[in-house]
Protein 1
Amino acid sequence: MAQISRDQVKEMMAEVMRRQNKVLPESEETPLDEIGFRSLDFSELALRVEDELDEELNFDAPGLRSIRTVGDVLDFIDELQKDL
């Protein structure tokens, strides 16, 4: 089964931000609220990942609530791929 690398997910995240004339910072420690990455943006990113994997990601609300930084998003997507 194919997996998407962390760098590929980061590039997808940057694309979502570029569409809103925003820039994804280099630091994975950057809080999402500082860069304006919202839940709708996460949903768009998740859909892009699903399209690339041709698999549905299964995640729950409690897991989403723990996401605070760029790195948290990348870690979360990495974990979801392990369950495929």
Protein 2
Amino acid sequence: MTSVHDRRIAVVGAGPGGLTCARVLQMHGHPVTVLERDTSPDARAQGGTLDLHEDTGQVALRTAGLLDQFLAVARPEGEEMRMVDAATGEVLLHHQPTPGAPARPEIDRGRLRGLLEASLADGTVRWGRAVREAIPQDDGTCRLLFADGSTEDFDLVVGADGAWSRVRPAVSDATPRYSGVVFVETSLDDCDTRHPAVARLLGQGTLMAKAPGRVLTAQRNSDGHVRVYLVFRDAPDWHVSAGLDFDDVDAVRAHMLRLFDDYAENLLALVREHDGPFVNRPLFALPVPHVWEHVPGITLLGDAAHLMPPLGLGANLAMVDGAELATALLREATVDDAVRAYESVMLPRSAEAAKLCGEGLETFVPSDGSIGWTGAPSWDHAR
């Protein structure tokens, strides 16, 4: 039998889920290696803001001994939400967080990654270590093939490497499918100083305006940075048929303004006054339910296991996955017993969450082109 106490564990991917798993293991004296394709913590932007839920993300941080550190840097004011009439720009619904009430405070994804990574022993994360393939071995271990051609064997490989996981094919033939929904992202910097009218409209959290088949939304991040998303249904490469090159910022801006031309001018200021480039982000999701037959020496967590529409659950579930897998590894007699116990809970939970997110996306941007649900989901942008 393979005991976790003296075996080699590799986590592929230094996102919130993978780092949470590594942190919980290290807290209890168990060695772990995190393999990350990024060459450094600052090699690329980490995405937008996340709301961490009391019953998932915050539970995982408590298990990791980091909840107080998180609460010290989180932004509870980021829970503010304004629904705005698309045609007039008037506020229809204004939700403000109640002091002392159950909260889902916001934190920038990069800050969360930094908090988790800083909690690990030096050298735990091997930056610039891109995995090409995971190959289960006959003896129950798993061999990793790296992009540089080298290999390394582990008693357990945890695929925490996101939507386009290189580890997933070792346990599942499933691949992400296009959802039919596109997010086009841009941003504004130093919003309070440079864009005061936009800042007043936005408040401290999220703004959303819906019209038939389209959504314009904006979210505050830290340090006056605002991310803007223009959401609609089209082909994933819609810009090709439209004759657009995303390097031609003026042309993309003009196209977006035409697509949203029935929106109020104070809302279109989010597009006209943008500072960042436009980025095409078609949404993909794994089939529901995504399940697999247990394979010794390997498992998945987070988006690698259950990529779903980004409606506020992805990062939270990834962190719970990481904490629960680590806890099972600490509790069970063998690695295989631990992985089986973890998968028996994670797979049905993620299937239910993915089903809800799929239904939520349909009501958020209905496929029939109607305005759909006018509620206010939050979302996290998975890596």
Protein 3
Amino acid sequence: MAQQVESAGRLASGAGAVPLALGGMLGAGVFVAPAPAAAAAGPWLPFGLLIALAAVVCSASSTAYQSEAYRVPGAAYVCVRARMGVVPSRVGASAYLAGQVAGMAAIARVLGDFFLPSAAPQVAAAALLLVVLSATAGLRIRGAAAWIWLVLTVAVLGLVVVTCFAIEPVPPIPAGRPLSDSAVGITGAAAVLFFAFLGFERLTAPAAEQDRFAWTSMKRGIVISLVALVVVLSAVTAALVHQLGWSRLALSPMPVREVLTAAAAADLAPLVGVGAAVALLPVLLGALESFRGTALALVHDRDLPSLLGRTGSAGTPYVLDLVAGVAAAAVALLVEPIPAMAFAACCLLVHYAFANAGARLLLADGGTWPMRGACLGMGLSVVLAMSMPISAMLATLVVVVIGPLATGGVSRRWR
């Protein structure tokens, strides 16, 4: 794996803002999320994409203002703790950490399914171990390396899109069950597609000071990244629908791999599989970095054991990285990508509901539109979280109950 460790310091031109955000978002969600979104909403999926985009824009704005006001890792958690109290901050942080672990597991399983489908769980665990070792050694994909990996991801997706539209699709298979087109289905699709946007916080709420950009560069970077992701996700979804149809797409656990077989381009599958697997490695590394920022904030507040903050020779919290990697590997070995993705999205939506609520209080004396955006983001996050599958909601409920109790037990403080 290519390595480039960028020297500390902000890029004056802000050129690194786009790969920092977009490189974290172009991951498993783009490769897999269209399938469960199609199962939830069918042809109404584009409306779900717009709702997910609205929730992301509001959450990105809120976390950017929080990061500006609290210039520390885990700024959203710190803001919620300062503005809403200890228990809400622990609920949001617990959901965030669990969501990041499940998200890492989902990304790793998708990587394993692309690289070696017959041993996907084992490959996923090995990939997570590789990422933990890389992170512990201080590897940070930035600068030219980030652009190279971003171009690789776009090239893989572009090859799939071109192949799907270049070959005449086979006649559609009759639907085994009617596709959902209700309002609940649309919001369910939006909730799943929300996962595809995760990674924006790497720019709006960086875990390291050297990733902090000037406000104008940050805003420009997030706008470009979100627009680019919507375009890419729309193109990939349209290509999958063109070749598979809505019903077959809804039933596909790995639509990008299946569509190549459907398009009589099975010879391209190994190339696309290896390319996609390699492209997902930096996304895993970015998810671990995001996990690290909020977890270290909890360690600083003594809500997590101080042992987790112990650093190695590279200055990285190797114990924390190892715990996160082992937890994600355990989930990857036991859970398929789509259920893991649904649980991750539900947990992170709960986190952003609290983050937007904290931003609403932070911005109460500031600009009107940012405050209203935070209110909208809070409402959308709640609605989307409540639109997830029952299993994901129940698992999230367990997290938001046990998490605050566990952190409170560690610190022995309840307010």
Protein 4
Amino acid sequence: MSIAGRVDPYLDELVAIRHDLHAHPEIAFEENRTAALVADKLREYGVDEVHTGIGRTGVVGVLRGNGGSNRAIGLRADMDALPITEKTDVPYRSTVEGKMHACGHDGHTTMLLGAARYLAEHRDFDGTVHLIFQPAEERGGGADFMIRDGLFERFNCESVFGMHNMPGRLFGSIAMCTGPIMAASDIIRIVVRGTGGHGAWPHQTRDPIVAGAHMVTALQSITSRRVDPIYAAVVSITTFRAGTGGSVVPEEIELGGTCRSFLPEVRDLVEAEMKRICTEVAAAFDVTAEVDYARGYPTTVNAPEETELAAAAARRVVGAQAVETDVTPLMGAEDFAFMLGARPGTYIWLGTGEDRPWLHAPDFDFNDAAIPAGIGYWVSLVETVLPRPD
């Protein structure tokens, strides 16, 4: 019987756990109920050690296999929800106004719990598995918090692995690539200051709105004229806050947005060009510009050896025809990048159906039918990376 098939006896329980998590979403660093449920289930399943409060609300379970190896790996699932109002009619819809599991982290948590139960019952691996339940992936960089709280000093891992559900991809498929798979994500804030006044006498003002409008246009030249076309970068201005209307020219406006890139040198270039362009455009209009470029999550980079192992493990579960190893990277960001910066590993996408609502949509709901494949992948990965000696 397949690994996924062996999960059938307790699949109903896992689905119930997923629905419970979905109904009680908790956003970044508020995952107290979720963490308590995770810790209780790990103890119930017979996990050897359960540690809580890591990186504020993170949980780590320690599970030892049959054998004497001192090798160890980490499996990571994120637990947090999003500040979005749910618009589904499922019976387990969010009970918390303005918060919902719109990215499937309830499913991620459930799949790793299912893997924990299976691995604790069978222990058909040689070494130690650290089950990492991480807070605050969406907002707050919970992976970085766990690392700075001593994650890998306390639970040493030679490699670490992550997984995300992916609507829009063939159900049950698994996709990955070597190298960058998700982009670095940076936040920009630009404050333009001039001299306010009456709109009927614009010559007596130094209008920050006109300067800001030119900045929005000029900043698009970074990706089209400064970044090498064979590389990728995104500069998106997503906010333009200005004025109170009527005849008043404001003294100050604010622009905001995001920048995405894969390569460190491209990231450096985008930041430098953004500051240069804003400063020089401001000077041309006799105003000033203050640019705050805040670096967020780094690029999520998959290591070659671990990606090969992940692909082999995936083929055992879903078949070679459903495994893609050269998937096109996405410009979305993922704080698992911090863990991959500390340890080699791989991040994969589990297809949940081509007709499913997209991530972060108010009508999103994790596809429960994908739970067995996700558990199967985790178990297969452990048995592939930490094989028992013949």
